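The material for today's practical consists of a large collection of protein records. Read left to right, the backbone structure tokens trace the chain's path through space. An example says more than a description, so a record of this kind follows:
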Amino acid sequence: MSQLKVVSFDLTGTLLALSPSLGEICANTMLELGLKNVPAAKIFDARKKHAQRVVRAHGLAPTSEARSREYWRAMLWEIFEGAVPSALFPKAKDLVYERISDAASWRAAPAARRVLETVRFLGLRCVVISNGDSRWRNALDKLGLTPLFDKIFLSSETGFAKPDTRAFDNVCLSMKIRRDELLHVGDSLSHDISPAHAIGAEAVWLTHTPDGAPPEQRVAIIESLNELPPLLQAKLCTQSARKHFPRSTRNLLALLRGLPEEQQPDFHTIVVKKNSSETGARKWLRTENAPYTTDREFIVPADTLDDILKNHGIFAGSIQSSIRENWENIVPAALASRCVPTELRDGFSSLVVSCENAVIRQQIEFRKRAILKKIREISGCEKIKKIIFSNDFSG
């Protein structure tokens, strides 16, 4: 499993949206032209999806500024069909294109800025992969989001438009990462999720109105951008555990968390995957320390497990569970994801807090007195008198 390094975002429908919508812009344009019997905006919005399918079926894609104009002309022709006379279509098309070109017509998703800042805070790089042109770049500048991206890949500049997998390969090449070190976030199964998976990258499907199961089980589904940071944090913590713990320990952790165990891979598969000799593969297996076999059941006696949990204060309704549930209210939001209450000692009078690194530890130690006060305000936590900080962070 490779380490996640870059998170890419689709723009329209994911981070940005037209405000007013394309349907409203089209309806207002008809009114400006003095036309009567103007269809409702939602009708134009519904026609947009059909127009996209028709235009793409003809092989049109916004792979340059000129082709982007041609793409949008064909799109608007399908959207306005039967509603705008042919003689007035050039004027209607220019008016709509002008509205979309205005950066003021675009708005950012409510959680866009916070999510992008959080992704960067987690140590990941952010990029854009969008079927757009210079208008999209102007919108990002106007909304102040451009500085939050390491690079912006627009189809009109790269020459590759989704669902062409080369759009994603180009990002990996430019960012100097492996394909499986990329995670893409988008709202389209056909143009975001499928091509990302086709090259071996991971994907998160942002679906505001779920209309069916995704084609692959490994698709993570979110209904709001607010759900992305916890998902990324969990993934990074899992990668950290994989890096620092042998498989036997990871299987124990999986058991405690109610997750499937990780089976030992076939020896010959390791030789091929690691592109090494059999000696190198055996060495890798030894470092993994994986005693698991499919014919042996991995069991921890229930009474032993209960004793372990109770000795560490980890059970439903316990002091530690109460602290964990209220952790985001106890510690500043910027630090809550980078430190965690891990253990109770000295008869539950001392709380151990593991920090991601020395810098985080120093920042949270400055707030030690305030944190301890908030903890003692929680019912059942009055006996805690001391906080011990460590750098042994496991998420």
